[in-house]
Design goal:
CATH topology: Uracil-DNA Glycosylase, subunit E
Structural class: alpha/beta
Bound molecules: uracil, iron/sulfur cluster
Number of domains: 1
Distance between the termini: 21 Å
Strand content: 5-15%
Length: 237
């Protein structure tokens, strides 16, 4: 049996809709009141996604286009956790459909992990960005704060409970810290199967695929990323 990492309270005023529960989004920093009643495992992915669309658990919903919830096979044995949606993901409403997603897709294929076995999500479900200086149109990615990762955590826990994956792959430092704690360091802990604290699953940490795009030695960086995914693939048998 899986245990949730944090207890999810199940009692909320029945008259309140998912998105309209009374809270101050700016100060409360917690998605919990927006969750459907998943405490008994009754909701499905569609219900979770609809509830997440109305989340105001932290301030990030205000400037982003939409919630980008996880996507993939409900029976998937591997869950990939990224940081947060990027510019294209924010527009399309789907995770990993931009440049980092193309790296991930290529590595999945080469590691022999089938799409039907995969669910992809992010530690934070809204795109955080700042506008280019001088009033330009470009939206520049900003890393989420620890408080925003914490606020969004109930969605990730709910996805974990529903998907019940065998292996979780943490893509980059934000996901690694979210899953393995604040002392997590990619360089030290990548590419090994580790027990996932509080869950009956294993975790493999690796770099974020966008690091491949930024690297001077892209091929070398990609090769390391692929090696790490192969470790995850080996756990699937
Ligand atoms: N980077 C992420 O971490 N997640 C996405 O969905 C896209 C880019
Ligand atoms: Fe809710 Fe997460 Fe979006 Fe914050 S980032 S509003 S907690 S879905």
């Amino acid at each position: 049996m899986l245990r949730p990492r944090v207890a999810v309270p199940s009692e909320y005023p029945p008259e309140a809709g998912y998105g309209q529960r009374k809270m101050n989004a700016r100060t409360s920093h917690d998605a919990t009141p927006f969750l459907p009643d998943t405490a008994e495992g009754r909701s499905d992915l569609g219900e979770l996604r609809r509830a997440a669309a109305g989340c105001q658990g932290c301030g990030l919903y205000e400037n982003a286009t939409q919630t980008v919830f996880g996507e993939g096979s409900p029976g998937g044995r591997v869950m990939f956790v990224g940081e947060q949606p990027g510019d294209q993901e924010d527009r399309k409403g789907l995770p990993f459909v931009g440049p980092a997603g193309r790296i991930l897709d290529r590595a999945l294929a080469e590691a022999g992990i089938e799409r039907g076995d995969v669910y992809v999500t992010n530690a934070v479900k809204h795109f955080k960005f700042k506008r280019q200086e001088g009033g330009g149109k470009r939206r520049i990615h900003e890393p989420p704060s620890a408080a925003e990762v914490r606020a969004c955590r109930p969605w990730l826990d709910a996805e974990m409970r529903l998907l019940d994956p065998d292996v979780v792959v943490a893509l980059g430092a934000t996901a690694g810290k979210a899953l393995l704690g604040p002392s997590f360091r990619v360089t030290k802990e990548r590419g090994r199967l580790l027990p996932l604290p509080d869950w009956e699953a294993q975790v493999v940490a690796t770099i974020h695929p966008s690091a491949v795009l930024r690297a001077e030695d892209r091929e070398g960086m990609y090769a390391g990323f692929l090696d790490d995914l192969k470790v995850a693939a080996s756990a699937l048998g």
